Every structure is written in C-alpha cells, then in structure tokens.
Amino acid sequence: MAHTLAKNWILDRFVNKLLVYPLAALTTLLAPPIIAVLLANAIADNLNATVSHAMGPILGQINSLPQPINYILGENYGIISMLPFLFLYALPTVLVFSAIFTFYTKAGILNRASRSLNNLFIPFGVGGHDIIRVIMGFGCNVPAVIATRSCSVCTRGNCISAISFGSACSYQLPATLAIFSAAGKTWLTPFYLLVLAATTLIYIKCSKSILTQQRGESYKATLRQNPMIPNWNTIFREVSVSFKEFINVALPVFIIICVIAGLLQYSGWLTQLTGALGPFMSLFKLPPEAAFAVVLGSIRKDGLAVGLLNGDMSGTKLWVGTTGELFTSVYLASVFLPCLITLLAIWREMKIKFAVKLVIRQSSFAIVFSIVIGWVSHFISKI
To answer: What is the pTM of this model?
Structure first.
C-alpha cells in the first residue's frame, strides 16, 4: 500500500509540477513514438540476421515456383518476402506505443500536457487539446481523426490536416526506420522526424482558419486532480486490442498490397507505371522507380517499405543512390497523400468537400516541400 502511494505521489509531482512547462510537456508527448521506434529497432537488430538466414532457403524455393505465384509470394514485393518487416518492425512499434499511450491517458498525463501546450500551438491553428489527437495519430490516424469530434469547431479542420500530414503512424514509422536501417543510415530517422514536424507546422500555419485565432484561445483543458498509476490489466487489455487490430486489419491490407505489387511486377505494368510517372519524379531529383513507392505509400503507409526495401531486408532497392534520394523518397511517399483508410475516415467525418480540399492542399504542400528537400540534398551532395 505504501509503495503504491509513493508511486502515485511521484506521478502527481511529475504531472502537476513538471508538466506545467511547455518544453517538458512536449518532450513527454513525443516520448511514446520515439521509444516505440527505438525498441522496435533494437528488436529488429537482434532478430534480423537470424530471420534473414532462415528465410533465404525458403525464398529460394518460392522464387522457383511457376509464375505468377513466385511474384505474389516472393521476388521483390511478394507476401513472404515482405512479412518479416511487418513482424520485426511494425508489430513491436504498435504494441509499445499502445502501452505507453494508454498509460499516459489513464494516468492523467495527456490532460496536463495539453493545457501546458495550448498557448504554444494556438498560433499554428491548433490548441493543446488538438495536439493530443496529433500524437494519437502516431498510433493510427483513423481513431485520431474520429477523436477530433471533441475538438473545437474552429480548430478541428486544422487538427485533422496535421494528423493527415504529420502523424507518422505505427506502420509508417517502422517502415521508415526499416528503410533507413537497411541502407545503413539509421541516423536519418531523428532528422526525418525533425523535418516532418517542421514542415507540418508550416503546412498548418499556412492553411489554418482565421477563426482559430479569434476563438481558439478560449480553450481550457479539464485537469485530473489526482493522477494515479493505472491498473496494469487495463493497459494489457488495450495492447491486446491493438494486437487484434494488427492481425485482423493491418495484416490483410498489407498482404493485399504485396499481391498487387507482385502482380504489377509480373505483368510488366510496374515498368509502365514508373515510366509514366518518371518525368514527375525528376522534379524531386529522383529516378523514375521512386514513383512506385509513392503510389504504394498513398494506399497504405507501410506500403512504402514494399516499394523501397529488398525482400530479405538486406538493403534498399538498387535504384536508391544517394542519401538525398533515399531521404526525399521516404519523405514524399510519407506525406504526399493520406493513406486510403485515413482518407475514408476524413470523408466520413468531415464530408467530401473537406476531404477533396485536404487532398489537393496536402499534395501541393508535399510537392513543394519535396522539391526543396530534393534539390537542396542534390546540391549538398555535389559539394
């Protein structure tokens, strides 16, 4: 009993004393996705060599199967080729983020942090309460979009825009990490998150509603008076729900993406697609093959791993050349469009007119940002 009281007292000091400072609140809110990614990377580093060694003979047998079965199951984009990514990177990220975010919610950390951050983010068109939804989007964009129902009428549109553009979900983040890790450039991950955060703030600042400034400052968070360590059974239940969603929703969609990608490669349409979009890719100083990753990333964010990773996770696709090309490809594929499921959720919540405007606005900003990133990195590589 005394031990529990001591832990609750420490939590109370942390929530009501330290989190009143915006920097501490922001750092605390960014911790779940960062910790989840670091743990996923540690797990993958320990298991990747073993899994790759075990998968080698299996993929060799699969690739010798009749066409198009070998393309659907193996080769560059097949189901068996890409499944190690999903279980080594995506699943640990999803489960760890779910556990930490549930702890934050039940312990009252989110409420305190949201109030501390309100004045900091109002100039960008979102309040502290909205930032919680954006962080929630690092788990999955869809429930985060639905949760914006509790946002102010004046800031809800901006909050959804921020989620769609900048909330790297638990499938996008591990895909990004896996790609950078396979290329031997894990150090790009924090830089990527920094660029993503900065461009998201610019994006919502340029597109925010005038009404946000007039009425957003009236927002006040409801504080939980006595923060308490949550029941661990509650956290376990939430993690179990996330695992079931992973198996029942994420896994089937990922398999469908792999099947489509494999058939496109088998039919030769992949070559035609990259050829048709090649001139567009040149705007960003990228080769035509980058178009496929952008298309897959627009369907589902972990699809960019299918477009950029080798099947055995030993490296990136051969066309990826410089560090700048790698970074620009990942960024463009990540932010060009919301994934299909997120877009449907936005359509359902905000109607078709808002969804269409968001797609046009987001793709336009993504193109501008990616052109700048592509050309700057190309210039730096020549120095």
So the answer is: 0.78
